[in-house]
Amino acid sequence: MKKLKLILILIVGLSFEIQAQELDVNLQIRPRFEYRNGFKQPLNYGQEGTSQISQRSRLGINYKQDDFIVKLTLQNTRTWGDVPTTASADKNGVAVFEAWAQYNFTEKWSARMGRQVLSYDNQRILGGLDWAQQGQSHDALTVSYHDKTQKLDFGGAYNSDAENLAQTAYTVPNMYKNMQYAWYHNQFSENLGASFLVLNTGYEFTRNANTPESKILVNYKQTFGSYLTYKKDKLDTSFWLYGQTGKSNDKQVSAWNAAANLGYNITEAFKVDLGYEFLSGKTLNEGSTVIKSFNPLFGTNHGFNGYMDYFYVGNYANSYGLQDAFIKLNYNVNKWQFALIPHVFLTAADVVTPVDEKLDSYLGTEIDATFGYNFKKNITVTGGYSQMFGSKTMEFVKGGDTSHTNNWAWLMISVDPKIFSWKK
After folding, report:
1. For 189-205, what is each residue's pLDDT tens digit?
2. What distance in Å separates the CA atoms of residue 393 and residue 221, rounded to the nearest whole number?
3. Considering only CA atoms, which of 373, 307, 344 is closest in space to residue 36?
4. Are the C-beta atoms of residues 245 and 221 closer than 8 Å to each other?
């Protein structure tokens, strides 16, 4: 607390000295209890479920003066009990989640540099991943053009794992060496909007490692596509289509993703969504070396394909692909929000065993139930229960024991007060 008070005193002092127009300081405390009993994959035979409490603690500082904006967000993520009560140091320490500066050249053009969140459309390809306690942000430079109906963002990043003196391969897991992207959105009318995304990611690898012919190379993979929305009266629909090409790990990439969602507001409080998503995959024993499995890359994958995170949340890459058919029932009343979402999962490619037995494409059915309650200003309570009814194909693909009861429950409290605000 003494350190926090000192930081605020320094901020206030600096704000008067440089005559800041706006200064806000926000705090977030977000503990989450989880009971995991077959979360992410079926529990192995003989294993028992477990539970724990994780917590995100964030301090956000926002400063604006004329055409200049700066944001700094510090955070600590922890599991309750991961350090002793008398520990002299924290296990994870304090990390920088956001640290960027933005200059507005005109009312429409701006540029931002530093650690920042890249989040677009429904966050299928680029998202903030807010469910994860650590979130997701990039070290990048972005340039933006925004007017009433059109938005254009383009930018890039160049990563190294240290201040090196000689060339070394950048091999941070699931991270690019360099990245370039462009995103364009046009709101054609009050009802119809369309976005287009082009993303180029370059990944370093070493060819012929530990030999005299060893060479560090970069493979470039392109992800491109569109996201469409149409809303009118009680109808709320969306559709997206993305393709992937280029190379990865010295192999050709050819993959795609398509989805459609049809929503209808039966009443002001009750909404029904019908959806289907297809992510291409590959039969693992086929002779081709082409990568046919679509990778959502830096999307907020927890929001798709079931909340138990069986697919694409740090897993399931380069696999059989996925078909996801679902119904979402939403009911909102007063301060309460309820949702019930059954999913039916199938593989997108054939599943063949080592003895050439072709398995059924049906993976399983997951049922997600969630609730939210706005307890009071800056305090929300959310929770849920999910259960996976997996098939023998799921057992073959993911491992574990599908005859075991595989379920997951969680409860989260989010406290988000603005603890300091000053304008001049």
Report:
1. 999 999 999 999 999 98
2. 30
3. 307
4. yes
